[in-house]
Amino acid sequence: MTDEIREFLASRRANVTPAQVGMPAGGGERRVPGLRREEVAVLAGVSVDYYTKLERGRVTSASDAVLGAIATALRLTDAERAHLFALFRPSRSGRRAPAGGRAGLPESLQRMLDSMTVPALAYDACQDVVGANLLGRAMFAPVFEAARPNLARFTFLDPRAQSFFEDWDLACSLNAAMLRYEAGRDPLAEDVTALVGELSTRSPVFRAHWAARDVHEHRSGRKVFHHPEVGDLEADYDVLAVPGGSGVSVTSYTAPAGSATAERFALLASLAASRTREAVRPAPAEPTGG
Fold this sequence. Notes:
Blueprint: H1 2-13, H2 37-44, H3 48-55, H4 64-73, H5 78-88, H6 107-115, E1 120-123, E2 129-132, H7 134-139, H8 141-144, H9 151-157, H10 161-164, H11 168-185, H12 190-202, H13 204-211, E3 220-227, E4 231-241, E5 249-254, H14 260-280
Antiparallel strand pairs: 1-2, 1-5, 3-4, 4-5
């Protein structure tokens, strides 16, 4: 955790220039592209010695006020601020992956997904898809072809992801940043650690994005997908955390009424329903001998 604190704070310092915070650049050649430690200390109202020890992970009891001042000095986003606090006050649950695979979704939550008329997915901190409605499965059909659907593995390891996401590089960046956010919240979570290790071994692209040390909390926004059957889907997404500490989130995808994407959602729903009916249709009875 000491290394994580040092590298995260150093990477955030590198992103902020003196001009951005109203400080003179100073004379001489700067060894770092962004703020120096002493400049962060001045902005945060702490001693240079204290900030240096804190950045090196030698301070384990920083107050909320000090961490908040440092977050402000470094112009951290809400997700980055939460990550900074988590690095100093991490959960120590040591969450393990359920034996024999992921836990099933509660029936009530699955019923909620099924009642929704827009695509919806439920996934955990490891981005294992633990539930979906019919339209969600149809929208993310390539993801569900895996025995264990996982959004991170699909993004980094499946070649089809590069055409499925309109901006694949952005999808990779956000995906890695979401995993780092989860790893910071619970550094002993064995399932997240194992996934990061697997992706680091198998994907050079993941390694590059992981090294950027960005953090991101998935909340809302807009994405464009190239669906292999119905074409481009420009959808707004909203993420809801399921209460109870399970780490499961539900993401829904919507589009304005009358838009091309709304019409394609309707076509996708029709195709999915037709295939479901076909799958459950009983086989013709065998003719009996006369």
